[in-house]
Amino acid sequence: MKYPAIPNLPYVERPAGCNDPFWRYEGNPVIKRHPGPGKDRVFNSSVVFYQGRFVGVFRSEGGDGIPKLFYGESEDGFHFQFEEKPSQFVDEEGKPVSSCYQYDPRLVEIEGTYYLIWCDEFHGPALAIAYTKDFKTYVKIKHPFLPFNRNGVLFPRKFGDEFLMLSRPSDGGHTKFGDIFLSRSKDLRYWGAHDHVMEPGYEWWNSIKIGAGCAPIETEEGWIMIFHGVAGTCNGFVYSIGAALLDKDDPSKVIARSADYLLTPEKDYETVGFVPNVCFPVSALIDGPTGRIALYYGAADTVTALAFTRIDLLLDFIKAHKR
Length: 323
Fold this sequence. Notes:
The protein is mainly β. The protein has a single domain, classed as Tachylectin-2, Chain A (5 Propeller), CATH 2.115.10.20. The protein contains two helices and 23 strands. A six-stranded mixed β-sheet has the order 7-6-11-10-9-8, with no helix packed on it.
C-alpha cells in the first residue's frame, strides 16, 4: 500500500551522533499527567491523520480509576485538546451501548472507514470493534473473540476480501500466556482461520509475554510489526518495544525478529508513574514520501510520549539484530 504524505508530521530529525533505532522527543511527555479536568492520566492511545489534522481516541482515567475512551485532536500532533465526556457508542441498530471499562485503543483506516479496536468488558477483558467515518458516531460490532483477549490490531488493508487482525489470547489472570496470533474475517463479525505468529522470546526483555502495538507497516520487504515485550523482575514487569518483519503475502510467517529491543524504559516519565517501567507502543504516523515515522507510546501508564524513526532504519535494525 502507498502511505499518503503528512506534510506537518510531528517529527524531529535524529540527533547527530545518535545511532539508536528510535529517538525520543525532547519535549516528552507530549500529554502530561493532568491534561484537563477529570483526566488524571492519558496513555496507551491512538492517533491518526484526518482532514489535515491529528485526531485520536485516548485512554483516560479520572478519580474513579476506571478507564474510558475520549476523542482528542491537535493541529500539530504535539498539543492535544480533549472532549470533556467519554466517546459514546451505538450498536448496528443505532441503540446506545456501554461497557464497564475501555482501554488501549488502536485506530486504523481501511478504504475510507476508521476502525477502532480496544479492550472492553465482556464477562472479562475482551476485544471490541467499532467503526466511524467522522469521529462523532461510533458503531460497535459484536465482540470478535471470547474473553480473554487483548492487543487487537487490524492490518491497514484487506488481503483479497479478508480483514486480518493480530491479537493476544490470555487467561483470567494477568495475561499468563502471551503469544501473538493472526485471525481472518470477511465481515469483521465472524473470525477464524487462526494462525500462530510469535511466542515470547528467550531474550530477557520479551520473555514473559508480547503483544502487537500499532498497525503493521507495509514495506517492499514485508510488514514491520512493532510490538511490546515484557520482562519479569523482582520489582515487577518491564515493558519494552521491539519489532519483527512479517511476510508481505502471508503475515503469519515471521521473516526476521530483532533480538534487541528498540526502546526500553530509561527516562523518568517511563520509569516513574502509576505503573513504573512501561513503554507501550500504540500508534504510528507514517509520511509516505519520506518514510518518517512518529510513534505515540504510553509511558508508565501515566503519560503519552513520542519517539521518531524511519522505515529504512527500522528495516536495517531488524535485519542487523535478528536472532
